[in-house]
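PROTEIN–LIGAND DATA SHEET

This sheet pairs a single protein chain with one bound small molecule, 2-acetamido-2-deoxy-beta-D-glucopyranose, given as SMILES. Inputs appear in the order they were entered. The predicted three-dimensional arrangement of chain and ligand is reported afterwards as a token string under its own label.
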Amino acid sequence: MGSNFIIMLALIFALTCSIAFASDPSSLQDFCVKESSSSALLNGFVCKDPKQVEANDFLFSGLHTSGNTSNAVGSRVTPVTVTQIPGLNTLGISLARIDYAPWGINPPHTHPRGSEILTVLQGSLEVGFVTTNPDNRHITKVLQKGDVFVFPVGLIHYQRNIGHGYAIAIAALSSQNPGVITIANAVFGTTPNISDDILAKAFQVDKNVVLNIQSKF
Ligand SMILES: *[C@@H]1O[C@H](CO)[C@@H](O)[C@H](O)[C@H]1NC(C)=O
Ligand SMILES: *[C@@H]1O[C@H](CO)[C@@H](O)[C@H](O)[C@H]1NC(C)=O
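PREDICTION REPORTED AS:
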């Protein structure tokens, strides 16, 4: 009786943990392929009739193609989330390919809904993330081809190609829709913009500096 009770407690604890710790809610069925035509608003997407589900609902082709890195930061993220693969709905995972031009950066950003595990396929990357206040500890590392590095959910992180050629990485994320907040764009490129008085005080710089940065986004 006593040991049964302990087992029951352990089970309840395990169940509670799996619910509390998962990034996306767990599936209650084999799959819930996103039904694109539904207008119902809910957390995630309505399920397509399982009888109508086909292999292509679980497929994305094209990650062999390099992304166009001719832009201001010199990198390109090709996401493979529930937007690209409707079959990812409710599964709590997604993927991205990141291409870097020589010295290109994937600028500081966060994923509000997912941790990230990144594998370098080609080249060398300087990567880092920053812990929350008040420490704001900067944890950084230089990665070589084959290295795998983790960016914990919500923390600001970045990568820079420090090789002389192009670099490629594959990132896996613990959400069907991890979301991205690119810090520079989210602060200086909002619509409408955040008052330059506020930003000047926050960044402890002259208003002209703020206007100059805002004009770039
Ligand atoms: C890459 O992007 C640049 C800038 O947007 C554009 O001019 C160029 O044509 C693109 N290259 C390819 C191969 O799509
Ligand atoms: C910021 O917004 C204000 C008010 O809408 C506008 O007058 C100003 O030009 C904007 N600044 C920039 C840099 O876009």
